[in-house]
């Protein structure tokens, strides 16, 4: 474990519930070897309700294990995409891990991800990044691995080690935990099945479930890394240097929407691999209403932008809204 890179865990949130945010951070601290964590960055995207940041800061005063938690606030509301780049610029870990604030990580969630990033690529001399918030956080990160989390998450036991183990093997691998469900009303933690990311011709993300035969042939497939075409976007770990090498997110995109599909194209078409790591689990609250709104305008604009950049001759099949 001592050979694994230090990780910056980046959690962006807007109008988050204080109890959800505190629970999420506690799950990281309780279920992750602290020697693997460079820092936990809580990025408040200029929330209209500052209760979460204020109560979390008060909580930190009486809990010494929170000394690795740093509170940052964007000067103005940037939207989810730019808020993540903001957090990435502030991070110091070699690997950035992005998580939603309404999640909960599981035991040994990180090690398989980091195992896939073993050799360090050369760091790009200048920032080629795209989505401003995450790129900003990546520039500031000190850890070798960046772990991005949503603020409405809660990490599970040993959630970090499986991600770090996978990244350690190959730095061009970007790895995601299984996203479990935290019930919005009861806060009950519900296990999700093993699945991978897909998309339709409108470049809308969707979950794809492996056929039953995939698990029936070999039960070990329940725990083996699973190649994935796309990622959900909020929760993933990436080698910090590789994140910059591929240009990070497209900072020309607004708010949120389609950035997860765009960076998935970027990873696969720029020499990388994208995997789901079943041994790493993070709980996530799927809310009825998004703090940033529905982002219907930004979703359409971002999808068209990604299609024009990456689909080449296949753009004739692009049909946003399908």
From TrEMBL:
Residue ranges of domain Glycosyltransferase 2-like in the record: 8-121, 123-239
Domain of life, per lineage: Eukaryota
One Pfam family linked to the record: Glycos_transf_2
UniProt xrefs under InterPro entries: Glyco_trans_2-like (IPR001173), Nucleotide-diphossugar_trans (IPR029044)
GO cellular component, one term: Golgi apparatus
GO BP field: protein O-linked glycosylation; regulation of Notch signaling pathway
Keyword line: Disulfide bond, Transferase
GO MF annotation, one: polypeptide N-acetylgalactosaminyltransferase activity
UniProt xrefs under SUPFAM superfamilies: Nucleotide-diphospho-sugar transferases
Protein name: Glycosyltransferase, group 2 family protein
